[in-house]
Design brief:
Helix content: 40-55%
Strand order of the largest sheet: 7-11-16-13-14
Largest sheet: 5 strands, antiparallel
């Protein structure tokens, strides 16, 4: 009996787990998409008047704020699932996480399965198709955008699914394939205007093959589906979606640097912007993903195939329109890839050219470029940098005019943080620290701007999490740096266990024992001090065997002390920036002392410790001013403590 092939399932769960594991929200893109849904179910319309402080992408019409039309279509697709989640999940953060997984991680994973099927028929070699699918899945913008609550993964999924069925139709002339192609293409048309290019290419292809009846059927289906969906949206909105204008206050009240210049130098800036977005280290698509360059070599080496021709024309046509997107005032996109992220939809079509390169050349030639692209995606699992928008106008203008690199975040931002923290899963670490499902990067007591989050561990409050107490030994704590990567690797090993064990020739229990030892050695520590709630991330100093400065970010904060016997110890607290308040100290729920703090104060306090676990609570008395009220400087209103056991 022939053994069943579960490659499709393994590929799906590989991409689904990894992309879901590293999801998080970065900016107003996600917030706008969410509150479009929220507004629809709360107010039964798409008016964003109640959420203008939480949304950035919006248009103004007839005295009301609305989302852009593509976000309305995106919300319409998700509305049914949002309604289900509202009944199943009470917590808003949980709804956000599940919506992100459903709208981005799921279509990305399904897309990779389709691409595997496509590559297997294209290359004719199953193992090579698996390798190429895995490499490509983690080496392009597809992986990055599968982690955010945006429409780009859905756009790529529906458009390539349409392309897949269209190619199938050209091969077998089955009406069912052209029907599916028209349905998925129409869905893509609502999500992104770029899909209009592929529609024109389809029609030209049908004209070339003189399939008049099919062309009529194809066009009629698209027109019918589009008209029904569009008319229903018009009725819902009560007016034309296209009679909108950009918010007037964007030019009058909100000034962001660096803004796009006007005057005779505009064309020079325009050209420099395109170079920055395609080739420069700051945002360059081909700088971060050099493997995509080989797609063009693949197209040229095998230009007779219809899928190659359509893919190449689609890519070139989109790049022809790309300057219009890069001409935005905010082309750099803050912590996203700016207009480059709209090119996510092209990644599957680049894949077609890569398949031709894999078929034409030795894959060993391509592997270094694959690994560089994957490594860059690995580094991008940190929070996004925002250096361009912090440049002065003079510096920005000079660099743009002289075609200089605006920033080099890969080596100045992403690499240093990765060396310290490893890739970070916000979902995992919020589960471990706060015992809640939350994928928001920003801590509620921290400013929004990422650069002001305390350095060392930008995504979380702590490097270590208290697990339990071992009698006569100490606290068992879990180290967070690199833990996310370890869990991801373990999961991948479980999925591809048979293939791995057949290659390395060891028993399954031996592999399990090795992973257990790695976990215990690298991620488990015994301490006599551990942080509790409301602390920003301090870093453990391995040389001096103590915790470096920790920052208190709430009205109350706790930390734990372990003592092997009942004793009295002296605790030295250096308190800074306390804003003229009163600090109360409690030991094991018992009041110890009260101190009036003006600006800086050193408190030397004896503590009576019981054997084993001891909880020390620090409580403010008075009106605690949280940093979000200030919005800029994390140091002004936080409490900075250095804790030393004497």
């Amino acid at each position: 009996m022939r053994k069943k092939d579960f490659t499709d399932v393994k590929l799906f769960f590989t991409f689904f787990f990894i992309s879901s594991f590293f999801i998080y929200w970065t900016s107003w893109n996600e917030e706008t998409n969410f509150y479009v849904l929220f507004s629809f179910f709360k107010n039964k319309n798409f008016i964003l008047d109640d959420f203008i402080n939480k949304t950035g992408d919006r248009v103004y019409r007839d005295g009301h704020y609305y989302p852009p039309s593509n976000k309305i279509f995106f919300a319409s697709i998700l509305s049914f699932f949002y309604a289900i989640l509202k009944n199943l999940l009470i917590n808003e953060n949980s709804i956000k996480a599940v919506l992100t997984i459903f709208s981005s991680s799921l279509p990305f994973s399904l897309l990779m399965v389709i691409m595997y099927k496509f590559s297997k028929s294209f290359i004719g070699n199953r193992k090579r198709a698996i390798l190429v699918s895995l490499l490509l899945g983690f080496s392009t913008l597809l992986f990055q955008q599968s982690r955010f609550f945006t429409s780009h993964s859905l756009e790529a999924f529906f458009l390539f699914l349409s392309f897949y069925f269209f190619i199938q139709f050209l091969r077998d002339n089955k009406i069912i394939n052209i029907t599916f192609s028209s349905i998925f293409l129409t869905t893509s048309l609502f999500l992104t205007p770029i899909a209009r290019i592929i529609l024109i290419l389809y029609m030209l292809s049908l004209l070339t093959y003189r399939k008049w009846y099919i062309l009529f059927t194809f066009s009629s289906l698209i027109f019918l589906i589009y008209a029904i969906f569009f008319s229903s949206l018009l009725n819902l909105m009560g007016a034309s979606l296209w009679q909108s204008r950009i918010l007037p206050e964007l030019n009058e009240k909100e000034v962001f640097l660096p803004f796009y210049p006007l005057g005779w130098k505009e064309k020079l800036f325009y050209f420099s912007t395109i170079l920055q977005l395609l080739f420069f280290p700051s945002k360059g698509l081909f700088f971060y993903y050099p493997i995509l360059i080989f797609s063009f070599l693949g197209f040229l080496s095998n230009f007779r195939k219809i899928e190659n021709i359509l893919s190449l024309i689609f890519i070139l046509s989109t790049f022809f329109l790309f300057p219009f997107y890069s001409g935005s005032f905010w082309w750099f996109g803050w912590i996203s890839y700016g207009p480059v992220r709209i090119l996510t939809i092209l990644m599957p079509f680049f894949f077609v050219g890569l398949l031709s390169s894999v078929k034409k050349f030795n894959i060993k030639i391509l592997l270094p470029f694959f690994f560089i692209s994957i490594f860059n995606n690995f580094l991008l699992l940190q929070y996004g940098e925002d250096k361009i928008s912090t440049l002065s106008w003079e510096e920005f203008s000079y660099k743009m005019e002289h075609f200089q690199v605006l920033s080099n975040p890969l080596f100045e931002h992403y690499l240093p943080l990765t060396l310290i923290n490893g890739p970070r899963s916000v979902l995992l670490e919020n589960l471990l620290i706060n015992k809640e499902i939350n994928i928001d990067l920003k801590h509620p007591f921290n400013p929004i701007t990422p650069e002001f989050i305390p350095p060392g561990s930008p995504l979380v409050k702590k490097f270590e999490v208290y697990l339990f107490t071992l009698p006569q030994i100490g606290f068992v704590v879990l180290r967070l740096p690199w833990l996310s990567l370890f869990i991801a690797i373990v999961f991948l090993i479980l999925i591809w266990k048979d293939e791995i064990l057949s290659k390395i020739k060891i028993k399954g229990w031996v592999l399990f024992l090795m992973l257990t030892l790695v976990f215990l050695v690298f991620f488990i520590r015994i301490r006599d001090f551990a942080y509790g709630d409301n602390w920003c991330a301090p870093q453990w100093n391995e040389n001096e065997k103590r915790i470096d400065e920790g920052r208190w970010i709430g009205e109350n904060a706790t930390f734990f002390l372990f003592s092997k016997e009942k004793s009295i110890k002296i605790l030295r607290l250096k308190v800074e920036s306390f804003q003229n308040q009163t600090l109360e100290i409690y030991s094991n729920r018992k009041f110890v002392g009260s101190y009036s703090i003006e600006k800086n104060k050193v408190i030397i306090q004896p503590f009576e410790l019981k054997e084993g676990f001891n909880e020390i609570m620090l409580r403010t008395k008075g009106n605690f001013i949280k940093p979000w009220s200030i919005g800029i400087n994390c140091d002004i209103d936080n409490i900075s403590l250095k804790v030393l056991i004497l």
